[in-house]
Each structure stands twice: as structure tokens, then as C-alpha cells.
Amino acid sequence: MSSSPRIDSVAAIAVHLDHLVGIDPRLAAIWTAVGEVRPRIDAAGFPGIARIVCGQLLSVASAAAIWSRYQGVAGALDPAAFLGIGEAEIRAVGFSGGKYRTLRVIAEAVTSGALDFSHLETLPARDAVAYLTAHKGIGPWTAEVYLMFCAGHPDIFPAGDLALRKAVQDGLGLDSLPQIAELAEAALQWAPHRSAAALLFWRYYAVCRNREGVLS
């Protein structure tokens, strides 16, 4: 992991943003426009990644409604108990078949010991993403968002997130929506503070478009 502060408090994020403005002065105006940037802290482990899987390819409002119902299913937040829940019960709350199968693979990996979320605390960003994406159903976006919100990793930038891409386009005055690979490459200049940059741009998206870019 980076030696930079974890993104788990307003003060820690402000430290990162101070460094970011020094690296890229364009971000100063964006920070001024949004004001205080708050962290989002989610549960680690299976509950945290289940929530992220829930939100894949959905609007924030739809994901919130489905997640609220999912939490009401007995055992849904425990990987061992999840394996005893039928697919029909999970799909009834709004999960697709694909998302159910992804959670099942993750639950099996956790219960077998093949996936150890605490191991992520010892890994740098690239290795942590690779460790998660080695498990079927966990793509780069899911891995990166988990590392940011559940592990508090300070140097993650989910370039595949559409709201983030739109925010960067608006905030930096780009002529077109940046492609994923293009944005990932551009974000390298913000290392090792990329998580704070992502939070800054998500906040900018919320302020400018009056809608949240991530499930809070």
C-alpha cells in the first residue's frame, strides 16, 4: 500500500487534495467549486463487495432501492449463509442472474480461503486490483471501487466509471468524453493521490449535475 494517508476522513482527503493542486493546478478551481470533499466508508469484505456488485451498470437510485431489499434477506451479507440462499430469492430483490452468480463465486472463494480481503491491506494498487480480478465476475471497476470505498486505498482511479469520465470532461473542459484507457493514462499524473482525485471529480459531478455519481 502507499504510505499516503488512507482516504477515511475529510482531513485526510484535504491532505491529498493539497498535494494534487500542487501537481495539477487545474484542480484548484474544481476544489473551490465543490468545497469540502467527504469520504465514503463502506463495510469491508463480502458485504462491501456485494454492495458494489449490486450497483454495477445501474443508476444510483435503482441500486439504492435494490440494495435496501437485498439487506433484508436473511444471511445475504454473510458469505457462508449466502451459499444457502436460492437464486430465486436473490433475484426477487432485483439482482440479475449474472450478479447472483458473481456473488456466489465470491462467497465460495471467501469461504474456501481463496479470497482473503484482509490480504489487500498489504498490496500496492496494481497488485490489489489483480488479486481481486483473478476471481471470476470481479472486473476492474468492481475491484477499484472496492479498494477505494471498503479498503480506503489512497491511490485508485476507476477510469471506467461513466460519471467520473463525464466529471473529468466537464471539470477540465475537454472537447469530448475521455476514453477509459485515455483517462487511466491521464490519471497517472495524480498518483499517489488518485483516490482523492476520483472523490473530487465525483463530488463535482454531483454539484454540477445535481445527481450523485456513486451510491452513498
TrEMBL record:
EC code: 3.2.2.21
A Pfam family this chain is assigned to: HhH-GPD
InterPro entries: Alkylbase_DNA_Glycosylase/TA, DNA_glycosylase, HhH-GPD_domain
Keyword DNA repair included in the entry's annotation: yes
Gene Ontology molecular function terms on file: hydrolase activity, acting on glycosyl bonds
Hydrolase listed as a keyword: yes
PANTHER family, per the entry: DNA-3-METHYLADENINE GLYCOSYLASE
Protein name listed in UniProt: DNA-3-methyladenine glycosylase II
Organism lineage: Bacteria, Pseudomonadati, Pseudomonadota, Alphaproteobacteria, Hyphomicrobiales
Gene transcribed to yield this protein: alkA
